[in-house]
Amino acid sequence: MKDVTFGQYYPADSIVHRLDPRTKLLFTFFYIVAIFFIKSPLGYAGVAVYAVAIIFAARIPVRTVLKSLKAVIFLLLFTMILNVFFYKDGEVLIEFWKIKITVEGLFFSFTMALRLILLVMGTSLLTFTTTPTALTDAIEGLLKPLKYIGINVHDLAVIMSIALRFIPSIQEETEKIISAQKARGAEFDTGNIFKKAKAMLPILIPLFISSFRRADELALALDARCYNLSDKRTKMKILKYKKTDFAALFYALLFVGLIVADRIFLVNIDIIGLLR
Asked: In the chain, what is the straight-line distance between the N-terminal and C-terminal CA atoms, in Å?
């Protein structure tokens, strides 16, 4: 878990880092929308090239971005297995009992896994290039209209920012607890799945206690600094859109438009037919 990088900020001097955090948040939203609109292999290829281009523009090592996938490896494998065994449409390759493995099922599981990988990579870039404080300001700025219906936008933004900020801290705490339990003779890599699950209890209990203690200390720290004492809070840095922000939003909208056009108008390539 010490190699998991999701939720961490990677300092660098790049055009992506210098963008307004609201722009990057909208950019990520459009990216996610584009991923769920993909229908053809050409669309997947376009999104992959788009994501890699942003990684290089942000000057973030590809290896660092790929490490963020470690957090979802189990979900990735679980999703692929479910799709392979329970997707029943198409030409049957293997059949036993009530389970069928089809060519279309294999292709569908591959595309779903690729979609999940692209989704994690894109959202990781947001935290790699944006500090928690800037992300809080961006969320508050974009959700400002909700103030008129009685929703405390600032508190909501702070909660989301703190959740992202404590992901690396909880990972580090988990690593320390595992090392301490191993020093006491605990074994986590032996036995069947039930013994491994039972062996996780000495990790989860101290981790929950530590998390609640951190939350209590954070609440006391906020209270000591008179947090939320006044409704008229001021900001040290005022967010302002620049020409590069408008250009980035234009390219994001253009990208989503191309993906939607690919889904609606373009003729999909029959990959299954080509493989046959």
From this structure: 41
Same-domain check for residues 11 and 113: yes
| pTM confidence score | 0.69
Instruction: Assess if residue 137 is contained within a domain.
Output: no
Q: Which residue has the higher pLDDT, 120 or 189?
A: 120
List the beta bridge partners of residue 100.
95
65 part of a folded domain: yes
CB distance 16 to 54 below 8 Å: yes
121-153: pLDDT as tens digits: 888 888 888 887 788 788 888 888 887 787 777
State the helix-helix crossing angle for 21-37 and 132-142, rounded to 10 degrees. Answer: 70
Helices (H) and strands (E) in the chain, counts: 11, 2
Q: Which residue range forms the structural domain that includes residue 271?
A: 1-130+241-276
Residue 196 included in any domain = yes
